[in-house]
């Protein structure tokens, strides 16, 4: 089922307008264009969206560059923001807590453990939702992704 080009909500196959936001929808593509869109990377859209999360921001970056389908672009961009952000947080915490003479390693270990748990939960949740064809928006990351890359 297609998604609205403006808000990402599910729309009927032949809908002229989105029921959620009212945006006009593109004409239904021909069978040849539809086949070309699904075989752009040789992967189904939901599989490509899932794979954009597999190795965090690295696969997100790869799929931003090679797959231009809107759903895949959404998930790949969100992957870059989520897992790139978690990587940056890890790198920023290391010198702050790692060099402390007051037992910084204990605090650093606890914070990185919490960040890793949040990252693992987000990783699994995003991959499952991407495979289901749902545009699951991680609250802060989705908005930040749209500010950085633009809306898909």
Q: How many helix segments?
A: 6
Rounded to the nearest angstrom, the radius of gyration is 19 Å
Major sheet: none
Point out poorly predicted stretches.
29-39
Oligomer: single chain
Question: Can you walk through the features of this model?
Answer:
This protein has 6 helices and no strands. The two termini are 17 Å apart. With 152 residues, the protein is an all-alpha fold. It has helices at residues 31-38, 45-54, 57-66, 70-98, 104-131, 139-149. The protein is 63% helix and 0% strand. Helix 4 (70-98) crosses helix 6. It has 2 domains: 1-38, no CATH class; 43-149, no CATH class.
Features:
152 residues
Layout of helices and strands, plus pairs?
Layout: H1 31-38, H2 45-54, H3 57-66, H4 70-98, H5 104-131, H6 139-149
Explain briefly what this protein structure is.
The chain is mainly α. Helix content is about 65%, strand content about 0%. It folds into two domains: about 1-40, no CATH class; about 45-150, no CATH class.
């Amino acid at each position: 089922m297609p998604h609205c080009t403006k808000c990402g909500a599910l729309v009927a196959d032949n809908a002229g307008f989105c029921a959620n936001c009212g945006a006009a929808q593109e004409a239904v593509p021909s069978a040849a264009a539809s086949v070309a869109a699904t075989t752009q990377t040789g992967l189904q859209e939901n599989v490509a969206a899932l794979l954009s999360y597999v190795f965090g921001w690295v696969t997100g970056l790869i799929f931003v560059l090679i797959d231009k389908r809107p759903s895949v672009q959404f998930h790949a961009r969100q992957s870059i923001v989520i897992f790139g952000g978690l990587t940056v947080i890890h790198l920023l915490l290391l010198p702050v807590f790692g060099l402390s003479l007051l037992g910084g390693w204990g605090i650093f270990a606890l914070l990185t453990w919490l960040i890793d748990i949040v990252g693992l939960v987000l990783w699994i949740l995003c991959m499952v939702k991407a495979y289901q064809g749902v545009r699951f928006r991680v609250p802060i990351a989705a908005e930040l992704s749209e500010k950085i890359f633009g809306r898909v």
